[in-house]
Amino acid sequence: MAEHTLKKRPYGDEEAKKILLGVMSAETTDWHYNTHHKGYVVKRNEIEKKLADGGKTLRDAANANYSEFGELKRRETFNANGAILHDIFWENLGGDGKSESAKELVKKIISDFGSIEEWKADFKATALSAKNSGWAVLVIDKLSDGKLRNILVDEHGYGNIWGAQPLIACDVFEHAYYHKDGPKRAAYIDNFLSNLHWERIERRFNNQKN
Ligand SMILES: [Fe+2]
Predict the structure, then answer these.
(1) What are the distances in angstroms from CA 106 to CA 95, 98, 205?
(2) Fold assignment, 99-208
(3) Residue 109 C-alpha to ligand 1 middle, in angstroms?
């Protein structure tokens, strides 16, 4: 079975320390990627191997109260979604925060939220409302009505909408901001928005919109 690998960021580890400094401490650019993000990839591989190797023995003991099979299944998606959201988080960052370069997406944001300011206010409130281990995610809700929505996700999946494609993902797990901003999550969210790389976000939107 092919293993999952830690997806490279659009910038190197040393560059990250400079271009992400407004959002997180230099240490966090390393810890968050090389420990937390990598941890989801490593554990996802470990779980998939256990499920493959355990085969019938694990399946035969499946049980709603407790089973190793059930716990592995639960943690499989926790880690898979963790890796996916972090891939998008790093891809989103490293820019100047100016949305003008994302013409198509800005048009869609204005159509669905009224204005960029309205979208930002809703995104920020969403990120402030997630649990201390959660996310705010701008998604395109392809299976409902094709609209953009800011969704509140606790952990990596609770609150998600099936088929919704993530475009911007703001990590509000405390590991994302505490080393720089302590309990000031609002400051971190503002800095996250000011560091968005809208050219890359526009590319992701254009690949997902149809
Ligand atoms: Fe994280």
Answers:
(1) 16, 11, 10
(2) minor pseudopilin epsh fold (3.55.40)
(3) 26
CA distance 122 to 147: 15
Domain ranges of the chain: 24-92, 99-208
Centre of ligand 1 from the C-alpha of residue 176, in Å? 6
Report how far ligand 1's centroid is from the alpha carbon of 173 (Å).
Answer: 6
Per-residue pLDDT of the chain (210 residues; tens, 9 = 90+): 689 999 999 999 999 999 999 999 999 999 999 999 999 999 999 999 999 999 899 999 999 999 999 999 999 999 999 999 999 999 999 999 999 999 999 999 999 999 999 999 999 999 999 999 999 999 999 999 999 999 999 999 999 999 999 999 999 999 999 999 999 999 999 999 999 999 999 999 999 987
Instruction: Residues 24-92: name the CATH superfamily.
Output: Fe,Mn superoxide dismutase (SOD) domain (1.10.287.990)
Reported pTM:
0.97
Ligand 1 centroid, distance to 171 Cα (angstroms): 6
Which burial class, exposed, middle or buried, applies to 164 when counting CB atoms under 10 A from its CB (0-12, 13-18, 19+)? Answer: buried
Q: Quote the ligand 1 centre to 96 CA distance (angstroms).
A: 21
